[in-house]
Specification:
Alpha-Beta Plaits; 4-stranded antiparallel beta sheet; single chain; 175 residues; 17% strand
Length: 175
């Protein structure tokens, strides 16, 4: 489950992602370790010029490599401790409109289009079970939504992460 919710990159952008070289991967790894690092600090750490770091960051940003600059904030800290995944079955032709309607429900923090018996899976954050019931009812009221099924999040067994993928990509880029 990912806590950054305004993604610049999504499945539609996968085919336009740039191939990342070793320097790109080192820059991304440095930013992952210290998301608040300045361009000057990154340049010093990576032994690159400031202009090189700025140019690469601009290219990576434009191509959708960076998903969000939004800080990860715990929904529980905001008073929404109950999280759930809501599986949504929908009319296929209505999916774009359904997605826009879901975007207007503040408790919906993330939605993914998926394959299989369901069409979308939404992560929601709620105050309590009654609030979750109300959110589910609002989702069911969206035109084109045919059914929902709710699974409560009991724990973040493995929170969203890409560090393993970055390390794998860095190893593979050295081959």
């Amino acid at each position: 489950m990912h806590n950054d919710h305004e993604h610049a990159a999504d499945a539609d952008n996968v085919d336009i992602m740039p191939s990342l070289d070793h320097v790109d991967l080192e820059l991304i790894a440095a930013l992952s370790r210290d998301p608040r690092a300045t361009v000057v600090a990154l340049a010093e750490q990576l032994h690159l010029s400031r202009n090189t770091v700025q140019a690469r960051m601009a290219r990576l940003e434009k191509s959708g490599v960076f998903q969000s600059y939004e800080r990860s904030i715990s929904p529980a800290a905001l008073g929404f401790p109950l999280q759930a995944f809501i599986s949504i079955g929908a009319t296929q032709l209505s999916l774009p409109a359904i997605t826009e309607d879901l975007r207007r429900i503040p408790e919906v923090v993330e939605v993914h289009g998926v394959s299989g018996q369901i069409d979308l899976i939404a992560l929601v954050a709620c105050r309590d079970a009654r609030h979750l019931f109300d959110v589910d009812a609002r989702i069911l009221a969206v035109p084109g939504v045919e059914r929902t099924e709710t699974q409560l999040v009991m724990s973040d067994a493995i929170p969203y992460r890409v560090s393993g993928l970055m390390e794998l990509a860095r190893r593979e880029s050295r081959r």
